[in-house]
Amino acid sequence: MAFSQATRKQTIEQLKQTPLDLLIIGGGITGAGVAIQAAASGIKTGLIEMQDFAEGTSSRSTKLVHGGIRYLKTFDVGVVSDTVKERAVVQGIAPHIPRPFPMLMPIYAEPEATYDMFSVKIAMDLYDRLAGVDGTQYANYTIDKKEVLQREPGLRAENLLGGGVYLDFVNNDARLVIENVKEAAELGALAASRVKAIGVLHDETGRAVGIKAQDVLSGETFEIRAKIVINTTGPWVDKLRAVDAKLDHRPQLRPTKGVHLVIDEAKLSVPQPTYFDSGANDGRMIFVVPREGKTYFGTTDTDFTGDYQHPTVTQDDTDYLLAAINHRYPDAGVTLSDIEASWVGLRPLIAANGSSDYNGGGANAGKVSDASFQNLIDTVDRYEDQQADRAAVEQAISKLKTAHAEDTLKPSQVSRGSSLETEQDGLITLAGGKITDYRKMAAGALALIRRILADDFQQATKGVDSKKLQVSGGHFDPTNVEETLKFYGRVAQDAGIPAAEAEDLANRFGSNTGRVVTYVAGGAAAGLTLKESAELRYAVSEEMALTPVDFLLRRTNAILFHADTLARLKQPVIDEMARLLDWDAATKVARTAELEQTIAESQLSALKGEVGA
Predict the structure, then answer these.
(1) The pTM of the whole model exceeds 0.85
(2) What is the distance between the alpha carbons of residues 555 and 118, in angstroms, rounded to a whole number?
(3) What is the C-alpha separation between 133 and 95, in angstroms, rounded?
(4) Helix 77-93 / helix 438-457 crossing angle, nearest 10 deg
(5) Residue-averaged pLDDT of the chain
């Protein structure tokens, strides 16, 4: 299906002329999740994003679909229950994207440690039970100090007690967004990037009935009319609310900044994702993840009040992460000069939660009831006194009940850490949440949207089972992923693409691989391989990639995990996009400058004191 610069122009014309049932503002994972479900429900849906799809938070995560075992430290059982169940759902609807990859958690005897060897086993057992993986090949287990160091000999041995191993999933966040958007468009949604909402329209009763929009590329302003408008702008939620004259403008969010750094695996190699306390006794935990021949680590967690559209990595950020990584891997000696790439994003945390999504959620986010908690403590005490066995502890865990447990989802609390509110003028705001539970957040929003359409507009819509609504590229059996992707790899090989590159295409594009390889028909573009040429042409023609940064950062991960290829790739990609998109000389110069700036920022050229940064 064409989804390109040309269709974008057509879409904007349709948005001007077509009264919508639903207008979604924000093309990150939350908006994309609402769009696919709404379009599948037969709702006339529009989606606008002021930048590229996923350009903000949704391409700047830790790139895991993780279950949040950290939450169990504070008994936020509701958070973990939601998250681990949704993780399996996401793998089912996007089987080519999240992949299981067990996580190692080294346990140290030190002040403010999140877990000791006893408590981590309790937490992992509860985690597996909530996820439904106990008794499977993915069930957790503990290992002793010797085995931890056999796996990762570079880890600090001092005060190391052992470790826990439990199921987690690696993820390609930006791909998850674009595949949702593409499927929504296939289902009839009118989706356009680089269209900004600059005002909210109201009817004579004061109800929100659309927005005033600006085409960021042309500068043109126009109106989009809709029965319902939903704000899914992530960290920008308050900024959109601020241009709605009918609302009070008290902030709902408390954005925090998260930074990740990338180094070559030759500098620090880890066999599997690893998760540990920072060592700074500050309650933070750090991920270290292997990926595509690189190792990345993060994240920081600091309040942010700067330019939301352009957060940057500071010296303090790098100092903190380098100190953490060198503390845990004392012989690694990672320095600023070793950093090949970085990314920084903002987490759209709900202000009322009072603490970071990464560090246990809100003060009342799913705490266990006093009775359940006391029962567990009493049982553990009896276990330590040898008056109760392990089974009794496990039974106490299984009976944990949250103080705020709910059988049904309230519209104002789609999932822990997120909120769904109808403003006084009818604008819907869907805020907070995590990439893992985007589908559930969207389902809660869609239930509200369908009810409003039925009650206020006498408009019936069909229900959809969003747990089975597969995204673009994910239309195959999620229980047979490896064999299916091998098949798509052979399809790419049959088109003349070498085996290793064919495997990469299949893993990135899933059931769309056959579409991608049709673009080899034009042959290899100057300076690019046949595979690179095909994926670039596909991104431009069917994924609305409009700039080299769109392609090299979000449609692929070249800027993040293949920095050593950029010197070769930059100019050929610019030249081929200029040809495909018919750029004039000025546009080509501007796009080149934008790419160079993005690469310099990712590689921390300014912090390194490099000339021209």
Answers:
(1) yes
(2) 43
(3) 18
(4) 90
(5) 90
